[in-house]
TrEMBL record:
UniProt-listed InterPro entries: Aminoacid_DH-like_N_sf, NAD(P)-bd_dom_sf, THF_DH/CycHdrlase, THF_DH/CycHdrlase_cat_dom, THF_DH/CycHdrlase_NAD-bd_dom
Coiled coil: none
Protein name from the UniProt record: Bifunctional protein FolD
Keyword Oxidoreductase among UniProt keywords: yes
Catalytic activity: (6R)-5,10-methenyltetrahydrofolate + H2O = (6R)-10-formyltetrahydrofolate + H(+); (6R)-5,10-methylene-5,6,7,8-tetrahydrofolate + NADP(+) = (6R)-5,10-methenyltetrahydrofolate + NADPH
Pathway: One-carbon metabolism; tetrahydrofolate interconversion
The organism's taxonomic lineage, starting at the top: Bacteria, Bacillati, Actinomycetota, Actinomycetes, Micrococcales
Residues given in the record as NADP(+) binding sites: G164, R165, S166, T230
Organism: Glutamicibacter uratoxydans
Subunit structure: Homodimer.
Top-level taxon of origin: Bacteria
Gene for this chain: folD_2
Entry keyword NADP: yes
Length: 288
């Protein structure tokens, strides 16, 4: 039965990397700071933001939550982001979704300077990624790759199928995998015969938001499966996109939900904030 690729050991490694960066920053006067811009009263968003605040405190990363309220308008959000973009004490900016109806999310995301865009929300970050230039990939996409790399799953030359083509997971993930020399197939809701692609792959990453989408019949005995999906079942429990009962006996490895990719994302945000803080030092040391 499948080996479980759990997220906790990956998160622990990322936390150790963050601690090393924080140590390097000690004495420079620079304290890594993350700003989370929020304009919703969505309960699961509030829960996620609380977990960011908690992990920031544990990591010694300063965290400012800029809560503009669920009725914030475009202009208010724009003003807040522009101020954070200019604020030299802020190294990372997260624009939390969902945003109020009628707000233009793409215009707002484009206001986050690429070097502070630690959640890869600015379309320019995704473009840079595709062009092979330095940029932060959307955190969830990177978290899936961190899980694969931590468990030393071969990617170079391997056929990897990504299910989902969103800007937060599928597209950046395909770029990260290409950069690791994988042969990448991106599937989506209009793909015909999904199983023909997944069966022919050694790695399948599923990020569709459809409970039970991927079953054992879609895989082979060498399949490594990363489940990015988060769904809630009738009993109110968190479940992924993988039909675990049929996949576990067939696949070689599976990242579980909960306890897989989702466990890694917040640690990655802290690591990136500390990295952005270090890079701000290097940038300010350069002659104008
Ligand atoms: P999305 O709705 O924007 O995109 C879903 C993608 O899946 C689309 O590209 C769509 O074409 C594809 N898809 C839908 N049904 C399909 C089907 N039957 N067959 C093949 N492809 C199909 O969602 P998203 O924002 O990319 O998120 C995807 C999933 O990942 C969701 O469950 C979301 O909750 C989860 N997620 C988890 C984390 C985390 O931290 N664990 C973070 C972000 C998103």
């Amino acid at each position: 039965s499948a080996r479980l690729l759990t997220g906790l050991p990956v998160a622990k490694k990322l936390r150790a990397d963050t601690a090393r960066n924080i140590k390097e920053l000690a004495g420079t006067g620079v304290v890594p700071k993350l700003a989370v811009v929020l304009a919703t009263d969505n309960e699961s968003t509030a829960w996620y933001v609380r977990s960011i605040v908690r992990q920031a405190a544990e990591a010694a990363v300063h965290c400012d939550v800029v809560d503009l309220g669920a009725d914030a308008g475009q202009w208010q959000l724009q003003e807040a982001l522009e101020a954070l973009a200019l604020d030299h004490t802020v190294h990372g900016i997260i624009l939390q979704t969902p945003l109020p109806a009628g707000v233009d999310a793409a215009v707002l995301a484009a206001l986050i300077p690429v070097h502070k865009d630690i959640d890869g929300a600015n379309p320019e970050s995704l473009g840079r990624l595709a062009a092979g230039l330095p940029a932060y990939a959307a955190t969830t996409a990177q978290a899936a790759v961190e899980v694969l790399e931590h468990y030393q799953v071969p990617l170079a030359g391997e056929h990897v199928t990504v299910i989902g083509r969103s800007m937060v997971v599928g597209k950046p993930l395909a770029q990260l995998l290409l950069a690791r020399d994988a042969t990448v197939t991106t599937c989506h809701s209009r793909t015909r015969d999904l199983a023909s692609h997944t069966k022919a792959s050694s790695v399948v990453v599923v990020a569709a938001g459809r409970a039970g989408l991927l079953t054992g019949a879609d895989l082979n005995e060498d399949s490594v499966v990363v489940d990015v999906g988060t769904n809630v079942d009738e009993a109110g429990r968190l479940i992924g996109d993988v039909h675990a009962d049929s996949v576990l006996p067939v696949a070689k490895a599976l990242s579980p939900v909960p306890g897989g990719v989702g466990t890694v994302t917040t640690s990655l945000l802290m690591l990136r904030t500390s990295q952005a803080a270090l890079e701000s030092l290097v940038a300010s040391a350069q002659p104008a």
